[in-house]
Design goal:
12% strand, Aminopeptidase, two-stranded antiparallel sheet
Length: 348
Amino acid sequence: MRAAGLSLAVLLALATVACDSSTPTPAPSPATSSPTATPPPPSTVTPPPRPPAPTARPSPSAGPFDAAGAAATVRYLAGELGPREATSTAYRRALAWLETRFEAAGYQVRRQAVQVPAGNSWGVPVRAGTTWNLIATKPGFDPTVPHRIVGAHLDTVPQAPGAEDNASGIAVLLGTAESQPTPKLPTVFIAFGAEEPRGDGDTRHHYGSRAYVASLPAAHRKALRGMVSLDRVGVGSVVPVCTATAGLVTLQREVRAAAAQARARRGHARRARRAPSARRRPATPIPMGRRASHRSTRALAAPPAGRRAAHAPRGAGRRARSRAASSRRQTRRRPSRARPRPGRRSPP
């Protein structure tokens, strides 16, 4: 994964973009947004105790996006934890680690339990069990006022460590949350569970996100202005910005415009760093006069005392001076020819 390709385009876009609060996005109807198999209420499942979170470097305060930190997140999730199937122990470890990072960045975090069935994920049997969504908000967040969601799924297929799909999305999600300034719209950051399929058909995947939508009251749906899903954003230098609903392209256009502005700012910053400094060393004044000017020019062109020019062999200076002196003597000895005056012939 290329650290610079995390996008910085997507990242800075998320930190600056906001939908117009005067044009709310139509709220989805409960009939179309609820999953086919509605999960049981979160209160029926007791979350497991948190395992000890691994040692992580302190989260930076709000500021520029930390690309190196995002790359470290991918290395930890994919390299140390490995495959994170939604009901596995590795998934619970990743959930606890991410929860610790959000809390260190000043967010209030809650878990939403989701029941998932047994099935087959890309040829590998998976068991039924409980997975969790992780929802992070700033203190004082009110879900009835206009807000947006930025989400990414934390789980993987059982046979892959998921560096691209989707540790890259989680790295951008976490990095944006840690570096985000005060936005125009409040933002809810969600790490979803059980996105990967557990069989064929539209009802056999995206369990976590469908359960979250099904749990939203009507007032929360009405206040939601848009959602940005970060999925597989860590490969290549181009990050596609797509929309799931034809015609509702306002947020898509705003994300693209913000990404273009971010690229322009980075390019300007790079050019400014490469520009030569305006402050230059003052030139050494050369004394005026024929003899002084000649001596000063020769002294400035000579190498420093005690050092010999690397390209000049021994005796090169003496030979050059000798040739110059010989040329001057020949010039003085050459007889001058008188120029004839106009209208008079020269004597034979």
